[in-house]
TrEMBL record:
Ranges of compositional bias, category Acidic residues: 658-669
Descriptive protein name: LMBD2 protein
Primary location group: membrane
Membrane topology per record: Multi-pass membrane protein
Lineage of the organism: Eukaryota, Metazoa, Chordata, Craniata, Vertebrata
Polar residues compositional bias, start-end: 618-634
Native source organism of the sequence: Atrichornis clamosus
Subcellular location: Membrane
Gene name of the record: Lmbrd2
Compositional bias annotation for Basic and acidic residues: 582-617, 635-644
Coiled coil in keyword set: yes
TM annotation in the entry: 6-21, 33-52, 103-126, 146-165, 177-201, 378-396, 425-446, 466-489, 523-542
Length: 669
C-alpha cells in the first residue's frame, strides 16, 4: 500500500476539480487555455487539502521511528524522545516513502504560486481584451498588468530592505525565498480570516434556514424580483450595443481594411442579430474615405469587448431566470403537498429534461413526499447543529492555538491523544475533517461572493473566463495560508508548538518564519483572533445592513423594501406560472385533437384524392357533357371542407371575447 493512497487521491481530486469546472465553465465555448489554467489551479489547491493529512500521519510515524532508534544517551537534542523505552512503531497504511513528499510539495506549491501571481493575472487581461490579434491582446494584457506587477515588486522590496538593514541577518538565498513565501502567506491570511469568519456562521445558518419552507420561498420571490431587474437591464444593454454594431457594420463596407474586425464582432453577436444585420447589408457599395468618418481599430476593440460582455451577461440572466422559475415552482409544490392526504408528491409541471429511469424506479412519488415533506427539514436541522458545533470548535481553537502549556486548542488535543496510541486512521480522519471543514467555509464564500458583474461564479456553465481565472487566483492564494493555519491549530507546526520535533514535509518547504519575527510571533498568532469579531458581525448581518444602506438591496425579513420585492417577485412567478399553464393546455388540446381526428382526416384525404383522380379523368374524356362541372364543383367543395378541418386548431377562448348578441352576429355575417 506504500504510495497507493497518494496515487488514488491524486486521481480522485482531478476528477473532482474537473466536475466542478464543468458545472461552472463551458468547455465548448470558452478558450482551451482558460479551461486548462483554471483546472490546473483548482486541481492543485484541492490536492493540497486532500494530501496534507497523509503528510501529518507520515510525519508522526517518522517521529516515532526517531524516538525508538535513538536512546537517551545518544540523543543530541535534535529530536524529542516520545517514549522512554524501546517500542514498536506501526507503519500507517497510507505511508509515503521518504523523499517523495518534499519534492511533491515543492512542485505543487511553486506551480500554484506561478499561476496566481504571474500567469492567471496575465490571462485575465488577455481574456477580457477586445483585440483582434494575438499580438494586440498580449500588448493590452502587459499594459494592464504593469501596475499590478509593480505593486508586487514594491512590497517585496520593502521586505528585502527590512532584512538587509537588520544586522542580525545574513541575507542568503534561503532567507530570500522565505521572505517571498511570508509576503504571499501574509496577504493570503489577511483575506482568509475575512472569508472564514463569514463561512463559519453563514454555512450552518443557511442549512438551518433550508429547513424552513416559508423562508426559502420568500427568498426565492426576492431573488426573482432582483433577477428580473437585472435581466431587463441586460436586455436593454444588449440592444444598445447591437445598435452600435449595426451602425458600424453599415458604415464599414466589405472592401474596407477594418471589415475583418467588424466580421469578428458580428460572429460574437447572437444569431438573430446577425441575420437582421445581414439583410440590411449592401455589399456592392464601395467606401469613400473622404466622404465618411470611420471608427478606428482601437474603438472597434473597445466595442468588441463590450459585445463579449453584454452577450455573456444576457445569456447568463436568461438561464438563471429559467432555473429560478423551476426552483420557485418546486417550492410551491412542496408547500401544497405538505397537506396531501395521499402522501404522494404531485408536480404542477412535468420536468422538461428526461429523467433517469433508475431514479424514477427508486425515487417514486411516495418516497419523494416523505423526503421533501418530512425527512429533509429534520435532516437539515441536524446537519446545521453539527456544522454549528464545528464552527464553535474552530473559533475556540483559533483564539487559543498559541497556548502550548496547557494545550487549549481542541484540534491539537485530539491529534495528540491519537498520537500516543499511533492510531493513524483516526489521525487522518480527524485531520481530513478539520481541514475539509475549513476549506468548505473558505471556498464556499469564494463561490458565493459577487463583485458587481465583474466577478461572479454562476453554475450551469454560465461563468465567464474572467471570473474562472479570478477564482483560480483566489484559491491559489488562500490554500497555503489555510494549510499553515491548520497545522498551527493541530500544533504540527514547530513555530507554534515551540518544540524541536521533526516538521512536516509541507512546513519544511516554507522555511523558518523566524527570519521575520514580527510576522511569525505576531501577525500569524494574533490576527486569526479577528475571526471572533467577524463571526459576530456575520451573525447580526451587519454587512447586509450596510449594503442596504448603500442602496444594494439584500434579503432582510424586517425591511420594508424586502417585503415590496417579495410581493413583486411573487407576482412575477404567478404570471410565469399562468403562462406555462396556458402553453401546456394548448399543447394538450392539440395532441388530443390530433389523436382524435388525425386518422380520420388521413383516410378522408385518401378517399377524396382517389375520387378526384377518377373525376378528372372522366371530365377529360367527357368534356362536352354538362354533368362534369357539377362533379368538379362537388369535389372542390369537399376538398375545401377537409382542408379547413385539417388546418383548424383548438382555440383558447376567453370569456371576455364571447359575444352573445345575435344582432351583432348577423351583421358580422
Amino acid at each position: 500500500m506504500s504510495g497507493a493512497a497518494l496515487g488514488l487521491e491524486i486521481v480522485f481530486v482531478f476528477f473532482l476539480a474537473l466536475f466542478l469546472l464543468h458545472r461552472y465553465g463551458d468547455f465548448k465555448k470558452q478558450h482551451r487555455l482558460v479551461i486548462i489554467a483554471t483546472l490546473l489551479a483548482w486541481y492543485l489547491c484541492f490536492l493540497i487539502v486532500f494530501i496534507l493529512p497523509l503528510d501529518v500521519s507520515t510525519t508522526i510515524y517518522n517521529r516515532c521511528k526517531l524516538a525508538v532508534n535513538s536512546s537517551p544517551a545518544e540523543s543530541n537534542g535534535s529530536y524529542v524522545t516520545l517514549a522512554p523505552s524501546k517500542q514498536k512503531c506501526f507503519k500507517p497504511w497510507s505511508y509515503i516513502p521518504d523523499g517523495i513528499m518534499p519534492i511533491f510539495w515543492r512542485v505543487v506549491y511553486w506551480t500554484s504560486q506561478f499561476l496566481t501571481w504571474i500567469l492567471l493575472p496575465f490571462m485575465q487581461s488577455y481574456a477580457r481584451s477586445g483585440g483582434f490579434s494575438i499580438t494586440g491582446k498580449i500588448k493590452t494584457a502587459l499594459i494592464e498588468n504593469a501596475i499590478y506587477y509593480g505593486t508586487y515588486l514594491l512590497i517585496f522590496g520593502a521586505f528585502l530592505i527590512y532584512v538587509a538593514v537588520n544586522p542580525n541577518f545574513n541575507l542568503q538565498w534561503n532567507q530570500l525565498q522565505t521572505i517571498g513565501i511570508a509576503a504571499a502567506n501574509t496577504w493570503g491570511l489577511f483575506l482568509l480570516v475575512l472569508l472564514l469568519g463569514y463561512g463559519l456562521v453563514e454555512i450552518p445558518r443557511s442549512h438551518w434556514n433550508g429547513a424552513k419552507r416559508g423562508y426559502l420561498l420568500m427568498k426565492t420571490y426576492f431573488k426573482a424580483a432582483k433577477l428580473m431587474t437585472e435581466k431587463a437591464d441586460a436586455e436593454e444593454n444588449l440592444e444598445d450595443i447591437m445598435e452600435e454594431v449595426r451602425k458600424v457594420s453599415e458604415s464599414i463596407k466589405y472592401n474596407h481594411p477594418l471589415r475583418k474586425c467588424v466580421d469578428t464582432i458580428l460572429k460574437k453577436c447572437p444569431t438573430e442579430y446577425q441575420e437582421r444585420m445581414g439583410r440590411n447589408m449592401d455589399d456592392y457599395e464601395d467606401f469613400d474615405e473622404r466622404q465618411n468618418s470611420y471608427p478606428s481599430e482601437k474603438s472597434l476593440a473597445k466595442l468588441h469587448k463590450q459585445v463579449i460582455y453584454s452577450v455573456q451577461r444576457h445569456r447568463r440572466t436568461q438561464v438563471q431566470w429559467q432555473i429560478l422559475l423551476e426552483q420557485a415552482f418546486y417550492l410551491e409544490d412542496v408547500a401544497k403537498n405538505e397537506s396531501s392526504a395521499t402522501r404522494q408528491f404531485v408536480h404542477t409541471f412535468h420536468s422538461q429534461e428526461p429523467e433517469n429511469k433508475i431514479i424514477q424506479y427508486f425515487y417514486t412519488p411516495t418516497v419523494e413526499w416523505y423526503w421533501e415533506c418530512l425527512l429533509r427539514p429534520w435532516f437539515y436541522r441536524v446537519l446545521a447543529v453539527v456544522l454549528a458545533t464545528f464552527s464553535v470548535i474552530v473559533v475556540w481553537s483559533e483564539c487559543t492555538f498559541f497556548s502550548t502549556k496547557p494545550v487549549l486548542s481542541l484540534f491539537a488535543v485530539f491529534i495528540q491523544l491519537a498520537e500516543k496510541t499511533y492510531n493513524y486512521i483516526y489521525i487522518e480522519m480527524a485531520c481530513f475533517l478539520t481541514i475539509f471543514f475549513l476549506s468548505i467555509c473558505v471556498y464556499s464564500t469564494v463561490f458565493r461572493i459577487r463583485v458587481f458583474n465583474y466577478y461572479y461564479l454562476a453554475s450551469h456553465h454560465q461563468t465567464d473566463a474572467y471570473s474562472l481565472l479570478f477564482s483560480g487566483m483566489l484559491f491559489c492564494r488562500l490554500t497555503p495560508p489555510l494549510c499553515l493555519n491548520f497545522l498551527g491549530l493541530t500544533h504540527m507546526d514547530a513555530t507554534i508548538s515551540h518544540k524541536n520535533t521533526q516538521p512536516t514535509a509541507y512546513t519544511s518547504i516554507m522555511g523558518s518564519m523566524r527570519v521575520l519575527s514580527f510576522i511569525a510571533d505576531g501577525f500569524y498568532i494574533y490576527y486569526p483572533m479577528l475571526v471572533v469579531i467577524l463571526c459576530i458581525a456575520t451573525y447580526f448581518s451587519l454587512g447586509t445592513r450596510c449594503l442596504n444602506l448603500l442602496g444594494f438591496q439584500q434579503f432582510m425579513g424586517d425591511s420594508e423594501m424586502t417585503s415590496d420585492l417579495i410581493d413583486e417577485g411573487k407576482e412575477l412567478i404567478r404570471r410565469e406560472k399562468r403562462k406555462r399553464q396556458r402553453q401546456e393546455e394548448g399543447e394538450n388540446r392539440r395532441r388530443e385533437w390530433k389523436e382524435r381526428y388525425g386518422n380520420r382526416d388521413d383516410s378522408t384525404r385518401n378517399r377524396v384524392v382517389h375520387t378526384d383522380q377518377k373525376e378528372s379523368s372522366f371530365s377529360e374524356t367527357n368534356a362536352s357533357r354538362p354533368l362534369s362541372k357539377y362533379t368538379r364543383s362537388n369535389g372542390r367543395t369537399e376538398r375545401d371542407r377537409i382542408e379547413l378541418l385539417q388546418d383548424a386548431e383548438p382555440l383558447d377562448f376567453n370569456a371576455d371575447s364571447i359575444n352573445d348578441d345575435p344582432l351583432e352576429s348577423d351583421s358580422g355575417r
